[in-house]
Amino acid sequence: MQAPEGIVQITHHHESWIGQNVEEGFFGDDPIYAASTKSPAGFLRHAVGSLIDLSNSQKQILETASKFGLATECAIAAHVPGEFPGTSCFGEPSYDRPCDNSLSSAYILIYKYP
Fold this sequence. Notes:
The protein is built from five helices and three strands. It is of the alpha+beta class and 114 residues long.
């Protein structure tokens, strides 16, 4: 899906990851975003393959993301009918931190402030 002209993207990812995304053109094949369009519920990064069939390119994006501090991630779809779909993502740089509670935390962060 092509973003409409004038769409705003807000991110707090490290600049090197943003640069890698732009340089490699990852945004067009982002597996986290693609999976978010298939599920109204939030999901953890390791579950992406159960929501969509990952292409080789998408597998490479996930592998590369790990090298840029996104080893674990949770994502929550933020879709408004009739609007371009969006996603809120929260990542962790290490597999050492538990991610099971991060999905609940992400819901609280997103929906606490209407």
